[in-house]
Amino acid sequence: MASPPDGSDVQHLPSAKPYLLRGMVQWMEDNGLTPQILVDATLDGVSVPQEHVKAGKIVLNIAQRATTRRDLANEYVSFGARFGGVAREVWVPMLAVLAVYARENGQGMTFPTEETDTPPSAPEPPPPERPKLRVVK
Hints:
The protein is mainly β. It has one domain (about 15-110): Roll (SH3 type barrels). It has one helix at about 15-30; strands at about 35-40, 55-60, 70, 75-85, 85-95, 95-100, 110.
């Protein structure tokens, strides 16, 4: 694989997830659809109404018209919204966002469940081969 023209290392690029999320949300809203995200509510830093969490996950409507102060940042998703008529603040680290899809037709995308900021470690070398002996006459 060739290096980028600027000489930077591709392994140190930031996650594409927030960019894909913002792109999908814009596409959905431009087409009159309601963007929703599926969140792993068990991860550290997730602040969502726990009474709406089922099996460790929650679906959140992140449409502009359903939220206040929505911020789709590179590290998190945050907004204010009403849950059962009660105003709440929501904070979701980007790592906890599992999918984004349109409520009306289910179109969207899922994201990997595991993501790290560190490049993967080098694979372990294969074990040494056993010596092969043969009789020479």
